[in-house]
Records
---
Amino acid sequence: MKYDYGLIKGLQQELSKPLPGIQAHLDMAPALYKEFVEHVKTPKNPRLGAILLLLYVHDNKLHIPFMRRTEDGRAHSGQISFPGGRVEETDDSFTHTAVREAHEELGIDPERITIIGELSEVYIIPSNFLVHPRVAFMEGRPDFIPSEEEVAEIIEVELGTFLDPSIVKLKDRKLPNGRTFPTPGYEVREDVTIWGGTSMMMAEFLKIFENIL
């Protein structure tokens, strides 16, 4: 998909309107999450976090950077995610958190990005995080500097890849207790499937983006 600044302006306008929210999330939610939504409420005091969904121009096309987290034994070890993390005491907003984390994890220069909107919050069950997504735009490709401690790989995906419905795959995921459950995901590369909370946020973004195509 060729880059057109009109897409960014249109996206900014769409993000200012009421968001699809949970209805979009459920399109790419694990079966376990759907059970949670039906029977359980989000805890009153979840941990708070934010992520950055960054659109940037490279080779005259819009791309989004994801990261493969390092294998550190934590809840999301080795998974594909947006740059992001928990809210720190020094953060004055969720936007601040998202931008700071993107800089710390991927080296993205805060001075080069423009925040164009936000997506609906998503509760992440395994880590008890209530995540607040922010959407940003950058002219040109970032000068990536990945954190050796947190980032195993930076994965750059051309936005048009997500418009191909054949990349949505249903795969079984195994919980620590041995239970398996069917989980949809975006297979953007043979060895890269975006699933869980990240795919749910991406699903809402795509539903909004499709409104301007």
---
Amino acid sequence: MPTCAGCGYAYSDTFKFCPQCGRPKPDEPKIILDVKVSGVAHDFDCPLCGDASGVQKVSAIVGGGTHEMHGSSTSTGTGHVYAESTGEKIANSYTSSTVSSYNKSQTVLAQKLTLPDPPEKPYKSQFEAPGCWAWASGILGVAITIAILWNIEPYGDLFNGIGSGFLGCFIFILLASILGGGLAAAGTAMANSMSGTDEKYETAMGIYNNELSTYQQAKSQWDELYYCHKHDVVFTPKIHQAVVVEHAIEACYRWGKTQ
């Protein structure tokens, strides 16, 4: 119920004027609300548009855009074998073959964002001397054994009392194998030493460890990589810089070195 500001008379709200003094009814107070609406900031907002609606994790894009298929097929068949002279069927023949297949397909975007495979670890056998050294040394050892035993009368005093039968042959083969194997190992070790196998392997392992460390740093950046579909760029929450998708992998390696 309004109250007249002039005479103080209280009257019904249906009146537009005070029935006591005729003063107009005072206006109702107005409430003005000033509301400011602002978006919530996210770590994965695109540095170019400041919006996260078109942003997607790179690992999810690569996983969803990569399809691998493994399969195998087996074929079997039967036939008959006939005698050449009489043409009579003498047996049945059976054949079976299995073919394994592997197929990998990726979308164009997934290919651009896929991190390469890690560096391959070297093996010492890659730097060892060729096997011909072992064969040559082994043959030399067997030849030396034959020459020694050949000059022992008859087949050497070693065979006296045991004869030249099975036991004698067995001892001869055993001695030849031991000496041949020993010389083969010694020849291979000498060849490896001459070719610097240990030094080459240690150098290769040093290069591998450095490459693996660089790859792991780049992988940690790639795991945090986001892609903006609106601007075709990638970025990470820590390094809020937009890079075109063609340079995404290069950027991961560059950012990894600075962390």
---
Amino acid sequence: DLAIAFKGRPNTIFIGEKTYGLTTANSTFQINGHLLAVASSFTADRTGKVYDGAILPDIEITEGDNFENLLQDTKILEAISWFTKD
């Protein structure tokens, strides 16, 4: 999961909703000419924390999506506020 690559990084926050929670890696095996993909591991961030479920945001916002006008999207507005705070 790309989000995990940024976890634990200085001056980095997550704004929005928790992820779906499927942060596994797959291994493939060939059996009788067929491929079988099996979820075989979890992902860890730079601090060593293993994620076996959803990644939670630092600031949770679950409403207010506006894909037609991003400047009216509550998550975008919160991110702008975070960037411009003193």
---
Amino acid sequence: MTVDRYALSAAEAAMSVGCRALEVADGVQGARVPVHALYPTGAPPRAEAFGPYSLEVAMGAPVVGAHLPLVAFSHGDGGTPWSLRHLAAHLARAGFAALMIEHTGNSRSDNSLAGTPANLANRPRHARLALDAAFADPALGPVLAPGRAAVVGHSFGGYTALAVAGGHPLALPDQTPDGVAHPVSVEPDPRVVALVLLAPAIPWFMAPGALADVRAPLLVRTGERDQLMPPAFVERILAGLPADTRDARMDYRVVPGAGHFAFLAPFPPELAGPAFPPSQDPPGFDRAAYHVHLCGEVLAFLRGALAG
């Protein structure tokens, strides 16, 4: 893949990023799921705070363009979608709509369901509901490319992506009251036709046949020095994909020198430091420099996978 070929054009680079909140209610969970949509706009942006994270956006600005490909972002365990803000903003400038999903019960602001089977069922449902809300939104829906979407997931977000794309997860024994693995009921979403998995946390798909129904093309990146999800472990699970998906529709690479959190945007100074592991990288790894390359790779993949 030639990343330079898919760099932003001058017109795209000059585009601002619009932002609007979407109303997403999960009737099963009985809770609101915070979702923000990022998209291209010509309106002037300003720095907006999303918790401790800042992004230059134009709140509530009109959308520029038509037939925008839709991409949902799923964050890691106890995390926030805004740790993926640079990649999402890059896609928005390139003519995509990016959904920043904050998984209620497993986020930075509410982590009450971490490690539970309910959380395994909730996360892919959140993704489906976010897609529903985007396509139904009066401002965004009419300018979206109909019926197709991708999911980008980091760490536990990789679980979300595979589950909503047809994976059959098991709640692991240490997550169930009886200490026995149990199937998790997940409804796949046929609109999800492409996946980007970044340092994916996917042990819930170890059972034979767990990934047999995942047919979407995938871009997968793992970190050479990832101690949480080592490449060999991820590769062993992804070997369960259908042969034609694994061999012909998966772009898999190990990023030299990268750790588990290398795929997150660099953190603001007040969060960076040894006491906050997601802000840290193995010695010699330049996260900011790598993200320039990562944004190009993801854009190239999604432009191809969501074409048509």
